[in-house]
Amino acid sequence: MKNEKIPYKIYLEESEMPKSWYNMRADMKKKPAPLLNPGTLKPMTAAELGAVFCDELVAQELDDTTPFIEIPEEIRNFYKMYRPSPLVRAYCLEEKLGTPAKIYYKFEGNNTSGSHKLNSAIAQAYYAKKQGLKGVTTETGAGQWGTALSMACSYFGLDCKVFMVKCSYEQKPFRREVMRTYGAAVTPSPSDTTNIGKKILAEHPGTTGSLGCAISEAVEVAVGSEGYRYVLGSVLNQVLLHQSVIGLETKAALDKYGIKPDIIIGCAGGGSNLGGLIAPFMGEKLRGEADYRIIAVEPASCPSLTRGVYAYDFCDTGMVCPLAKMYTLGSDFIPSPNHAGGLRYHGMSSTLSELYDQKLMEATSVLQTEVFEAAEQFARVEGILPAPESSHAIRVAINEALKCKETGEEKTIVFGLTGTGYFDMVAYEKFHNGEMSDYIPTDEDLAAARAKLPAVDL
Amino acid sequence: MKNEKIPYKIYLEESEMPKSWYNMRADMKKKPAPLLNPGTLKPMTAAELGAVFCDELVAQELDDTTPFIEIPEEIRNFYKMYRPSPLVRAYCLEEKLGTPAKIYYKFEGNNTSGSHKLNSAIAQAYYAKKQGLKGVTTETGAGQWGTALSMACSYFGLDCKVFMVKCSYEQKPFRREVMRTYGAAVTPSPSDTTNIGKKILAEHPGTTGSLGCAISEAVEVAVGSEGYRYVLGSVLNQVLLHQSVIGLETKAALDKYGIKPDIIIGCAGGGSNLGGLIAPFMGEKLRGEADYRIIAVEPASCPSLTRGVYAYDFCDTGMVCPLAKMYTLGSDFIPSPNHAGGLRYHGMSSTLSELYDQKLMEATSVLQTEVFEAAEQFARVEGILPAPESSHAIRVAINEALKCKETGEEKTIVFGLTGTGYFDMVAYEKFHNGEMSDYIPTDEDLAAARAKLPAVDL
C-alpha cells in the first residue's frame, strides 16, 4: 500500500494556491433566504448591515451571483505563512482499520490558532484595516476563533476585543493567554461591560454564558464604539466564502493525482469548516458535473440539522442581530454543560441549511464518547492530537471506512481535520478517567427551545 | 522582497528526504571523549552499555567512523507522517525588523509532540521493538521528549514509562494528559517507586526534582525490569545522529535554491536540536569545504557552555550512568525555579562540547525576559507561538539581523525553531503580567556545584 505513488502528504506549490474564493451561492438555483431586519421583517440592506459589519464584507455577504471573488494579495501573502495546508493520505489509519477504503484528510491545524478559523479571520481583519477602522469585536466559544482573530488583528495592527463564553474563559486560561500574546483584550461573557450582559446576568445569575450571549455583547460594543465593527467566525456567507480556500486546495491536490472522492465529511457547528471544505465539490454537484456523498457531522448534544427546524430565528441571545433562516434549535438553546469543545451554536449557516433542505447533503449526529474514542485512535496512528470538533468528522470517516471493510468497497473518503486539541486536554483527561458522559436532548427540551422561535411567515 | 522566487516555505518532496543520518564524529579528527565506567574509569564497552540501552543504539553510540547510517524504512515511513518539515523564509519578521538580512527557520513543531524530539524518539522506539523488548523508560523535563516518546511507543506498541520532573508534572497537567492519550505511564520524579527516588526524597524532602534525578530513576527501572531498556532524548551521540535529519533537510532545501547561510543558530540544552541542525554544515567545516558561523544559545540561568568547565562528570544525580566528558556545571546544578521551559540540563553533548572546545562553534547566553520578548515579537509576525526553548534561538537571530541593519550587510541567517509553546502558557502569562524575572547564577553558585565533579584525570 505504501508503494503507491501518492505521498503521505500532498502539498500544493505556492503558485498552485487559489487566487479566488469560490462562492457556492452563485451556482445555487434556489438561493439561501436573506437575512431579515428583526423590526421590519424586510431583507437587511447593505446600509443596515454596514452599521455592524465592514463594507466589503457586507458586499460579500449579499453577493449570491458572483462565483469567484479574488483574494487580495495581502491576504494571499498571509495565507502563505501557513498555507497551503497538507492533504494527508491516512495510510496508517487505513492499515490500522484494515479497510480497503482510501482515506484523506485536509489538515488545517498547522498554525498557532490551531484551526481553519484563521482563513476567515485574516480576511475580515484585512477588510477592516482597508476601511480604516480602529478595531473589531467578536465572540469566541472554545477559543479557536478568538485566537485566530487575535493573530490576524495583530498582523494588521488592529485593536481586537474578544468576548469569550465564561465557562470556556475559566476552563481554558491558556487560550486566553495565547490571545493576549497577540495583544487582544479578552472579556468573559456575560460581562457587566455591556447592557445586554448586565441584563443576562440579572436574569440568569451564575450563568456560564453561551455563544449567542457573547455575540450580543460583541455586537453591542461594535455598534457603540467609533471606528469598530463586529466580525463573526462562522455561520455567515462571507465566512463560508473565505473558508472555500480549504475546499479549493483540497480539490486541486486531489486533481493533481487524479483522485475523485466518493464521500466528503466535515464537522458542523455554524458551518464554517464544512461549507469551506465542500464548496468546489458542491459547486460541481450544483452544476450537474459530478456527484459526491457529502456528510455533515454534528454533536448529538447540539443537533441543529438532524433535529432542528428550518425556520427564521435570532442569531444571538440578545436578539440584536438580524434574523436568519436556518436549521435551528432556537436561540435559547444551550448544550448541556458536559458537552466538550465547540460545535455548540444553536443554528447553522443559511447556505448549508438550504443545501441540506434541498437534499444535496446528508447530516448525522454522534455521541461525544464515541468522538473521543475516534480521536484517541486517530492520534495514536496518525500522530496528530485532534480537536474535539474535528474528531466528529474522524468518527464518521472511520465508520464509513469500516463499512467498506465489510463490503470490500474501495471508496475514497475525504474529511476535514479542522484543528488540534492542545487546549482541550481537560476534555481528554475526563475521557481517560472515564468521567466523560453523553447527552442527548429530549424531545421536550427541544420543543421548549423551539417555542421561542420568532413568528416569521413569509 | 516578496517577489523573489524563494517561497515562504520550502518543502522537500518525499523523494528528497534523507535516506541516511549523518554522523559528524566520522569527520572529526579529534573525536569526542568516550563514556567511562564510573567504577573502573575505563571506556564503557558495548556489553556494559547494552544493559541500559538497546543493542543497535549502543552500536550507534560507539560508532565514530561511519559518516552515513541508513535510516530504516519503517522510520522513514513514520517520518513521512510529519516530515519533511518546512524551511520557512521569515519574510514578515525581516520586514518588521527592517533588516537586509535574510532569515530562515527550520520549523520542527508541526507534530503533536510539538518539537523535534520525535525524530529520535521514533528511532529509539523502532530499535527497541526490533530487539523484541517490552518497553522503555525515560525522563522528561518540560515534557516534549516524554510526549514524543509516548507517540513513538504507541506507534510500535511498546510500553512507555516516563519519569517527569515533579515541578513540570504539577505545572503542566496537560502535557501529562497528552502522554496518557498515547498510553504512557507518567510518574512524578523523585518518586517513591525507585530506590534512588526514595533516597533523594529522604535527603531533600519537598524537592521539586531535576532532570538528573529523573534520569537516575528511569535507568534504575529499566535495568531492573525484564525486557526494558532506558532511552534518552538528548546529550547522547545516537540522539544527535537521529536529529541530523533536521540539518540534512535544511541543507537540501537551501541547496535547492542555491542559498548558502552565513550564520546558523540553535538553542542548546543537552544539544539534540543544535547537534542535528548543524550536522551537515559542521561536516563541511570539518572537511574544509565551507565555513559558517555556528552559534549555540543557552539560557543565562543554565550556562553550561559559556560558564561551565570541560571535564568528565556524572550524567545524572544518582550517579548510576556512565561518566561523560562535557561542558558541565556539575551534576548537582539545578537552575533557579524561575527558569521556564527546558534547556535545564547541567551538561552538554560530548560531541558539541568537543566542537566548542575546538572553537568550531560559538556559544552565547541570553536572559529569559529577552527571550520572551523575542518570542512574542516572532509570534505576532510569523504566526507561530514558539516554545521558550526555541525562542532562545529567535532572540539571537533577531540580534544578528539587527546588527545587519546597522551594517547594511545582507547576511543569510538560519535558525532552528524546535517547537511550539502551547504547553508553556503559564510562562507566557507570567511574562504578560510582568512577573517574569531573570536569574544569573553567581560565581559562588557555580563553584559550589563544580566542587562535586568526580576526580577523573586521564
Structure description:
The structure is a homodimer of 458-residue chains. Chain A has 458 residues and is α/β, with parallel strands linked by helices. Chain A has two domains: 9-15 and 84-114 and 243-450, Rossmann fold, CATH 3.40.50.1100; 20-30 and 50-69 and 117-230, Rossmann fold (3-Layer(aba) Sandwich). Chain A has helices spanning 46-50, 55-62, 73-82, 91-97, 118-130, 144-156, 166-171, 173-181, 195-203, 211-224, 237-256, 272-286, 304-307, 350-357, 368-382, 388-407, 425-432, 443-450, and strands spanning 9-10, 20-22, 68-70, 87-89, 102-107, 135-140, 159-165, 185-189, 228-230, 263-267, 293-299, 309-314, 323-328, 362-366, 412-417. In chain A, the strands form four sheets. Chain A has a seven-stranded mixed β-sheet with strand order 1-4-5-15-10-11-14, sandwiched between helices. Chain A has a four-stranded parallel β-sheet with strand order 8-7-6-9, with helices on both faces. A two-stranded antiparallel sheet of chain A has the order 2-3. In chain A, strand 10, helix 12 and strand 11 (293-299) form a beta-alpha-beta unit. In chain A, helix 11 (237-256) crosses helix 12 (272-286). At the A-B interface, helix 3, helix 6, helix 8, helix 15 and helix 17 of A face helix 3, helix 6, helix 8, helix 15 and helix 17 of B.
